[in-house]
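Priority: low. Protein: Major facilitator superfamily (MFS) profile domain-containing protein. Input follows.
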Amino acid sequence: MKVNRVILTLLWFLFVINLSEGLFAPLLAIYVTNELAGATLASVGFAVAIYAVVKSVFQLVIAKKLDKWIGERDDFYALVAGSLIGVAYAFGLAVITNVNQFYWLASLSGVGGACLMAAYYSIFARHADHGKEGFEWSLFSVGGLTISAAIGAAIGGVAIEHFGFSPTFVATGLLNAVATMLLLFLYPKLDIKRHA
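Result:
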């Protein structure tokens, strides 16, 4: 079943983003507890909670603003901003040295996730092909979220075992940068004059 260019670009973008984050996500607790001064397993739990709270609050605010503004340029810029924050997060993981820096990075990641997902859902929902919505949202779920994370986790486990965490974080940042560049194919297809 064929999908339109906007949906296809969004699916590939999310696939690369989640694959790259899957490179380290399952093993992040090991890195944090072994490498960051003052970190414990509780620190990992607190960082996840910080990320979730920040993302939840900001995503609702950002989504509401994006819905009010005319056109899809704002959605595009929010998507790019969120993606670039993801790049910074990955590179940040490679250089932080203590748990407080990890908490700040988790907060930053929450803002990035909020920008990215508020805009992503908005654009995806408007461009899903009529009569194919269930299939396209399933592609989002299966390919963009599940399969990509599984591939990333499998590759990441091997990469971390052979190269260590820092090179894997750098690879994640580079893959996120590639994903951000994929968005350049999206911009010409957006509805700049959409009415609020």
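The chain has one domain: 5-183. The mean pLDDT is 94.
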